[in-house]
Amino acid sequence: MRKPINIAGWLTALAATTLCACGGSSKDAQVRILNVSSGYSSLDMYVNNGSSSSDTLQIQGAASGAATDYSSLSSGTYTVNFKVHGATDTLQSLSSQKLTDESHTTYITYGSSGHFGALMLGEDVSQPDSGKAEVQLYNVAEAGGLDVYLTDSSTSLDDASPTYSGVGAGGSGATTLDKGTYRLRVTGSGDKTDLRLDVPSVSFDNQKVYSLVLTSTTGGVLVNALYLPQQGSVTTYNNTNARIRGAVGIADGTTVTASIGDLSLLSNATVGIMGGTYGVLNAGTATVSLTVDGNPVSIPSLTLTAGADYTLLIWSDANGTESTLISDDNHIPTTSGDVKIRLLNGMSGLAAPITLNADFSPVAQETAVGQASAPSQIDAGTDYELDVANSTTGAALFSKTSVSLVSGNVYTLFMSGGGTATVNGTLKKDR
To answer: Which phi and psi (to 5°) does residue 15 adopt?
Structure first.
């Protein structure tokens, strides 16, 4: 005779199985990932408390620009490893992570491709006094030192002091503010005219704790921000601007005037001239006005991506005046003591690819006219020799000695002329 099914016992077992599948009890530690890395679209997190020789997959597929749900983990001291989703190699390992019952931890992952980083954000900070809000700041933007202002909407930066001053790459800070709504502005450290982000309205509620995370943009100078209430959901404040400058590589004996939208890029500029600073304008599609020796030249409208830096190079070939919109990577070097340097070929008179060596080591090879090389990262130094040669023939074109390349800076060597025109090389500090 078949025994009757113990329904109560079966339901109890099912409930226990379901609880286990969800990651544990509500008293466990709670962990999540806030992935703000521009170079890693999907990440996995593994943990190991030393009780096993292998790691345990805790969170998988953490998408860039978002926070995952919390995942439960038994209290203990862990090594936390981050990997590209589905990969075996570890990007970064954080040891001695003490995770206690009912605690909440967000791991902020950040960095451009090849420059991954992660930091731990504890989300159980005690609430501030009545009428106050606590705001924690994290700068993971690869944009150098930054000043951050939280002010009334109408306050001029000229009349304001930074709420957070000189926060370096990877740095952080915390302050207590009166509850309310603030205007968020970010500038380069010590330079109120170098506006990197302007958010009209950010609210901080009574006795709440918030984190502001400054994140990288495509160009590496402008920044975005993420707003994260403690144990809450993320709000993203993306930059709506782009930066652009002009450069003249057209044949010798001409002058160029160029503007994009309402922004002037070049004014009667001669060959070899590159704009000293970037102009800022709203991202999107904009009309270009260009004249060469006073004669209008038609070129297509430009589409600028928010957060990007560009150089508009005006050059020439057998077909006449040409233009190239070049994307600029102005992220700071990721290794202390290094610089970044690239080659911009505006040698319309030569009409051949060129090569750049720094102290006889290749930095850029076969860079075509009208194009720029990818940046190379090299040691800083005070006595470099820079040599440029014709990539096709090997003929020397330009040499500059006793060149100082200062740690943390980004440079472009802009080459122009060639053929019957004088060869000119201008080393520009882009940031």
So the answer is: -65, -40
Domain 333-431 has CATH 3.40.50: no
Q: Is the dihedral angle over the CA atoms 297, 299, 301, 306 positive or is it negative?
A: negative
Name the strands in the sheet holding 209-216, side by side, starting at the edge strand that comes first in the sequence: 172-178, 132-139, 209-216, 223-229, 235-237
Q: State the DSSP code for 15.
A: H
Q: Tell me the sheet residues that pair with 195.
A: 187
Q: Hey, where are the domains in the chain?
A: 26-124, 126-239, 240-328, 333-431
Question: Which amino acid type is present at position 203?
Answer: S
| Cβ density class 284-311: b for 16+ within 10 Å, e for less | eebebebbbeeeebebeebebebbbbbb
pLDDT(26) > 70? no
> What does the alpha-carbon distance between residue 301 and residue 261 come to, in Å, rounded to a whole number?
10
- Cβ atoms of 46 and 56 closer than 8 Å: yes
Q: What pTM was estimated for this model as a whole?
A: 0.88
Question: How many CB atoms are closer than 10 A to CB 64?
Answer: 15
Give the helix ranges, DSSP H, for 34-75: none
The β-bridge partners of 258 are 266, 290
**Separation between Cα atoms, residue 202 and residue 211, nearest integer Å:** 12
CA–centroid distance for 5 within its chain: 61
Pick the CATH number of 240-328 from 1.10.8, 1.20.120, 2.60.40, 3.30.1490: 2.60.40
Distances (CA, A) of 378 to 12, 374, 404, 405, 408: 64, 13, 12, 9, 10
pLDDT of residue 202: 98
Class for the domain spanning 26-124? mainly beta
* Helix H or strand E segment including 12: helix 7-21
3-state secondary structure of 159: helix
CA dist 287 and 217 (Å) reads 23
- Dist. CA 192–CA 185, nearest whole Å: 10
Other CB atoms within a 10 A radius of the CB of residue 242 amount to 27
Q: What distance, in Å, lies between the first and last C-alpha atoms of the chain?
A: 85
pLDDT digits (tens, 9 = 90+) for 276-322: 899 999 999 999 999 999 999 999 999 999 999 999 999 999 999 99
pLDDT confidence of residue 334: 82
